[in-house]
Design brief:
about 575 residues; alpha/beta; 25 helices; about 10% strand
């Protein structure tokens, strides 16, 4: 597969942006910094959109090596024939944690704007018509999308202003406006830009602001073929504003005030162009933001923590980025009820602009596996734990997997298991996630220094992709003590595998969708987790019944059905979206 072949596919295109971590065709879930559920969500959404007849471009940060390798993330890669990854250079040639990713965004925006422009030339269309819509994931990707829309607005406004200014001002003035359009924010203030350029025709020295307005209006009407009434309208409109509010401002601000009034009034005298500009600026605003997590919500979850534990998370900076995104975005997808609540209350997002789109499930991967399907995974565990396969097939497996991050609180599940382990000698705890880090080393030391955990608790590191699904199915209990989750995809994956679930009260999937079937414990409460583990180990019937009800609950989380509803919602409330075309090859 190559890029030219992809571009030739006769399907409508959709762009997804997921910028931080090791997003890509091969996702080291639980094995790489800032990489996990969001990346799985994006790839699964792309595959669902493909099944609905679209082709998908996923933009993500590149210019640094793939996880645990030397190969650079530069060239396009293909998840399927209709789904490609495009790696955006920006920032240093090394990994950047999401809390520091803002340093790369300006360069990334420049690059992706140029990339889309080049492909639009090949396709023979305007850049903003290349994709049906742009769906960003997390705040850093949303900033890229918002700035991309802003640049397209500048392009459109500069195009139309060039038309109405032709022969009114010099060509050099028009050329300068076009070259500086992004710095001037022409798309956000087309009327002001027009008024400023009209006033620029009249010398400033020794001339009152209203004399400049009269001269500019006279020139505009003469060249545009307007009437005396039009000229009078322009002058009177500016005079009214200057008389009403001009006294509140110093003289230096009056030209700005006049330009901000004269320009829109002049544009209104070109109704065809004015209407086209307004319609096109509305048409190109096709950004949908899926936050996955919100700084306001996470800050609230951490409000009782020490300043040292909060400082590196940069909640204030993140929240300000998110508020800017919300003020400049038309459509939103919420992955949990908590996220929707925060968007509506703290970020002033209209309810009607929000689609509820929680993570769904790949039921071919996360399911109940038959015994004959598990032999390779048992061998993998034997190699990873040094336990014989005979022992592994006879023990009760408790499982947790997530990236090595302090918010995942793997220490809590280890401490809880220690309390329950003495009364349950046939239980073992398997913990996935990596790579080795300060957190990993601290957990390893905790296990090594505690004889009760010897050959009972195992840090598996990054789990190979082919063993993730089987491990969920092999486990009798899945425990997620995480204190910071947008949804809790691993909890839903455990449910799909018919595995009993113990969760913190910070995992939305458990709290909102299966509160009666999971056991929910206060985040950080080791004793509560220990009692829950002990209770389910002591009562296999209860464990089995809970697991069965959990498996029934996840039937509602179907990627293709949800993606189709998502597109229908956007089509009804926000954007024009073409129907997908399933035929390819």
């Amino acid at each position: 597969m190559n890029n030219e072949t992809y571009l030739s596919i006769p399907r409508p295109a959709i762009a997804l942006i997921t910028n931080h971590g090791y997003a890509g065709v091969d996702i080291p879930i639980g094995g790489a910094a800032d990489t996990g559920g969001q990346n799985l969500y994006v790839n699964s959404l792309a595959e669902a959109l493909e099944k609905l007849g679209y082709k998908v471009t996923i933009f993500t940060r590149g210019g640094f090596p793939h996880f645990e390798g030397d190969r650079m993330r530069n060239e396009p890669e293909f998840l399927t024939e209709c789904i490609r990854y495009i790696f955006i250079p920006g920032g240093p040639s090394s990994f950047i944690h999401k809390e520091e990713i803002a340093i790369a965004l300006d360069e990334e925006i420049d690059w992706v704007y140029g990339f889309i422009n080049e492909e639009a030339v090949q396709a023979g269309c305007d850049p903003w018509r290349l994709y049906e819509f742009v769906n960003s994931h997390y705040w850093d990707a949303a900033v890229i999308a918002v700035r991309l829309i802003e640049r397209w607005r500048n392009d459109i406004a500069a195009r139309d202003l060039s038309t109405v200014l032709a022969s009114v001002v010099s060509q050099d003035t028009i050329d300068e406006m076009n070259s500086e359009r992004h710095w001037l924010a022409v798309g956000d203030a087309p009327g002001y830009t027009l008024g400023r350029l009209l006033l620029s025709m009249v010398p400033e020295v020794g001339v009152s602001i209203m004399d400049r307005v009269r001269a500019a209006a006279s020139r505009w009407v003469a060249v545009r073929g307007g009437t005396h009434e039009s000229e009078t309208y322009l002058i009177d409109t500016v005079q009214l504003v200057v008389d009403e509010v001009g006294s509140h401002f110093p003289p230096d601000l009056l030209p700005i005030l006049a330009a901000n009034t004269l320009g829109p009034a002049a544009l209104s005298q070109c109704p065809d162009i004015d209407a086209r500009l307004a319609a096109d600026l509305q048409l190109i605003d096709t950004h949908v933001w899926t936050p996955h997590s919100l700084g306001e919500l996470k800050d609230s979850n951490f409000r009782n923590r020490t300043i040292e534990s909060r400082r590196d998370l940069k909640f204030c900076e993140r929240r300000d980025h998110e508020r800017m995104v919300c003020s400049r975005t038309r459509a939103f997808a919420s992955t949990s009820t908590e996220m929707a609540e925060q968007l509506w209350t703290h970020y002033r997002v209209p309810v009607s602009n929000t689609f509820y789109f929680p993570p769904c499930l790949d039921t071919e991967r996360f399911r109940v596996y038959e015994e004959h399907e598990l032999s390779a995974t048992y061998q993998y565990l034997a190699d990873a734990t040094s336990l014989p396969i005979e022992r592994l097939t006879s023990v009760t497996i408790i499982f947790e997997t997530s990236r090595m991050d302090r918010t995942k609180r793997k220490d809590v599940v280890i401490a809880a298991f220690e309390k329950a382990a003495a009364d349950h000698p046939d239980a073992i705890l398997l913990i996935g996630g990596g790579p080795k880090s300060e957190i990993h080393n601290a957990l390893a030391e905790l296990i090594e220094n505690n004889p009760a955990l010897n050959r009972r608790v195992f840090l598996l590191g990054p789990i190979p992709d082919e063993h993730i699904g089987p491990l969920f199915s092999m486990a009798e209990l899945y425990v997620t003590p995480s204190e910071m989750e947008g949804f809790g995809m691993s909890a839903s994956q455990a449910a799909a595998a018919s595995t009993a679930l113990i969760s913190s009260d910070m995992v939305p999937f458990a709290v909102n969708h299966v509160p009666n079937d999971a056991i929910i414990c206060p985040a950080g409460d080791v004793g509560s987790f220990a009692r829950a583990i002990g209770a389910l180990l002591d009562d296999p019937e209860d464990r089995h019944n809970r697991a069965g009800r959990l498996a029934q609950c996840v039937d509602q989380f179907n990627w293709v059905n949800a993606a189709e509803q998502f597109i229908n919602h956007l089509r009804e409330h926000c954007f024009r979206i073409h129907e997908g075309k399933a035929g390819w090859r």
